[in-house]
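Lab meeting, item 3. Inverse folding demo.
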């Protein structure tokens, strides 16, 4: 029996920006070192359906794309499959060419077949030469007449290691429209629903999904597959923990597939992730990539890791991300042909084996931030690695127009990163994390961002109080952090241009240096010391309190530029307004002293706290502990 590993698909939306992810012209030109598609590109008008496409006479279209190439290296490395079959169904005269690449992106042709009329062509392809990386794909060239690709799929005769389905866990807080759209896409995708046991929609908001006009219709179409759960807002970690907990009660489910709420899904990706999990030789977490929902060909990361020294997350090849497939296709992007191993995957889309949950527990009660990374690290230590599989992805509202390190989320960024390090870092006293954390405080203080520093200090105090605070403050930490903003004028966003203060200079100040250039080496040390001394003694000119001294755009408001002023008018990350930052000597002195004292305490007590948090972890993440939380917050 042939098992379908991957279908060749075309976009659900008639969006020209999406097409480079599915079908590609063979010929690109290069203008000023930038690859640019020429006139023989694939067109939306040639997409005839979810699985069908027209190839215009004399033209060539490649399936060597993100969603339609086969990620051979991942299947070879993580499964025992050593041969796949590519089946291509066509009508009309055409030539089918099959290619492979290696980990360096070098292309080789492996098969060619000319077809006419109605044809079904199969290629048996070995998965034995892809240890470092590589894809397999096919191109179709039409002859003197148009040809039609009627469908194609990658299959195997190999039986899966696991046959159970997946439950879906969607956590939402006031994103009901996105959720209904996700449910509608699932209801219209029988290929994906075939692998789904249950859909747990955990609604933690005040704008309920059930109040959406289209909800009743889509709920009826999904029937018993959909289960709505209402609970207090326990953040992403509480919502996903609930989905994990419910999945444990489903004997038909071998996995839980976590999905964020503000996303647009590719149903074929859901199917692929579950199938990959079924075939993995040993149970693995299957992560999905994240494309930008507002810039849809743009990929934000390929594989995410946590650097041991500072214990900070990042994506591999960070200098090349985000990657725009509308500018550089898969075949041109050589670095995307290497197999990349991840430490964790964001919970915008992540498939977790039930075996892993039974062994390591549920999500840490972290509310938001680092819950996904911490769980993946914990699972990895127990023998359940994370694999971010190419061709498995969705579109998520990106953080390009956000800066959640200076709003109420600064508390969770600081606390959960350090808690995760206490649980998983083997570096003496956290490596360089404590020094890095202190530098973050210092930069905020020099930029007159006192609110995030206050939140970060609160985070350190909670950490020092011991692990019990995580459950105790699970539902209160967020509202308390948001309420604290009222004490800090810089949190006020001025959106009405008629009421927004104008700077004394009357216009924006523009940079003269390159965007990311700042003091380094000896200059950095000298600059920091002189700025701190200056801020410590400097009294703010009353005129600069009444009116901002300068105005800077968000992109110009670097930590080494803002301290030149007593006060500054700075744009918000999303461009919706402006905020006013004012130097406050008393706050600067108090917060700098607190930051030094708290970080010194953390460093001194690190071994003691590490033992406390590691000893408490099994109880913090146990189904019994979460069950009690759910009952109390029902």
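The presenter then showed the designed sequence:
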């Amino acid at each position: 029996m042939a098992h379908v590993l991957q279908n060749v698909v075309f976009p659900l939306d008639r969006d020209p920006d999406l097409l480079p992810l599915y079908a590609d012209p063979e010929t690109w030109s290069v203008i000023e070192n930038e690859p640019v598609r020429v006139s023989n590109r694939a067109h939306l008008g040639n997409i005839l359906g979810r699985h069908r496409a027209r190839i215009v006479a004399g033209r060539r279209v490649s399936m060597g794309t993100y969603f339609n190439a086969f990620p051979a290296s991942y299947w070879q490395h993580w499964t025992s499959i050593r041969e796949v079959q590519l089946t291509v169904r066509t009508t009309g005269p055409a030539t089918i060419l099959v290619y492979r690449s290696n980990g360096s992106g070098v292309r080789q042709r492996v098969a060619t077949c000319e077809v006419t009329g109605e044809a079904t062509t199969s290629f048996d392809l070995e998965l034995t030469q892809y240890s470092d990386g590589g894809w397999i794909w096919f191109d179709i060239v039409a002859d003197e007449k148009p040809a039609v690709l009627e469908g194609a799929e990658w299959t195997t005769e190999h039986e899966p290691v696991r046959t159970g389905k997946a439950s879906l866990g969607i956590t939402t807080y006031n994103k009901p429209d996105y959720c209904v759209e996700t449910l509608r896409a699932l209801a219209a995708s029988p290929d994906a629903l075939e692998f789904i046991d249950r859909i747990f929609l955990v609604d933690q908001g005040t704008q309920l999904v059930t109040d959406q006009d289209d909800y009743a219709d889509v709920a009826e179409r999904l029937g018993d597959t959909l289960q709505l759960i209402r609970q207090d807002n326990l953040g992403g970690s509480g919502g996903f923990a609930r989905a994990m907990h419910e999945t444990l009660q489903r004997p038909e489910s071998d996995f839980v597939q976590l999905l964020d709420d503000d996303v647009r899904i590719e149903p074929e990706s859901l199917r692929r992730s579950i199938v990959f999990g079924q075939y993995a030789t040993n149970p693995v977490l299957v992560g999905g990539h994240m494309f930008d929902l507002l810039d849809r060909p743009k990929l934000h990361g390929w594989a995410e890791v946590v650097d041991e020294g500072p214990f900070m997350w990042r994506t591999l090849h960070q200098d090349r991300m985000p990657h725009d497939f509308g500018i550089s296709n898969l075949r041109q992007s050589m670095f995307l042909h290497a197999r990349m191993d991840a430490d964790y995957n964001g919970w915008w889309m992540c498939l977790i084996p039930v075996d892993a949950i039974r062994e390591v527990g549920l999500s840490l009660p972290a509310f938001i931030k680092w819950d996904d990374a911490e769980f993946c690290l914990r699972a990895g230590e127990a023998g359940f690695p994370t694999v971010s599989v190419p061709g498995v992805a969705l579109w998520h509202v990106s953080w390009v127009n956000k800066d959640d390190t200076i709003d109420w989320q600064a508390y969770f960024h600081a606390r959960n990163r350090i808690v995760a390090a206490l649980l998983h870092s083997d570096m003496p006293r956290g490596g360089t994390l404590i020094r890095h954390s202190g530098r973050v405080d210092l930069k905020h203080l020099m930029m007159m961002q006192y609110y995030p520093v206050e939140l970060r200090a609160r985070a350190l105090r909670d950490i020092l109080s011991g692990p019990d605070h995580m459950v105790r403050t699970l539902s209160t930490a967020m509202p308390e952090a948001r309420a604290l903003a009222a004490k800090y004028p810089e949190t006020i966003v001025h959106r009405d241009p008629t009421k927004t203060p104008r700077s004394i200079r009357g216009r924006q100040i523009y940079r003269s240096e390159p965007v990311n250039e700042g003091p380094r080496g000896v200059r950095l040390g000298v600059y920091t010391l002189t700025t701190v001394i200056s801020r410590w003694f400097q009294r703010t000119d009353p005129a600069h309190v009444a009116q901002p001294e300068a105005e800077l755009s968000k992109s110009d408001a670097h930590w080494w530029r803002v301290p030149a002023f007593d006060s500054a008018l700075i744009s918000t990350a999303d461009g919706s307004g402006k905020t006013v930052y004012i130097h406050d000597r008393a706050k600067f002195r108090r917060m700098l002293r607190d930051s030094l004292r708290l970080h010194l305490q953390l460093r001194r007590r690190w071994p003691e706290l590490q033992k406390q948090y590691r000893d408490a972890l099994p109880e913090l993440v146990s189904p019994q502990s979460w069950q009690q939380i759910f009952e109390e917050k029902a």
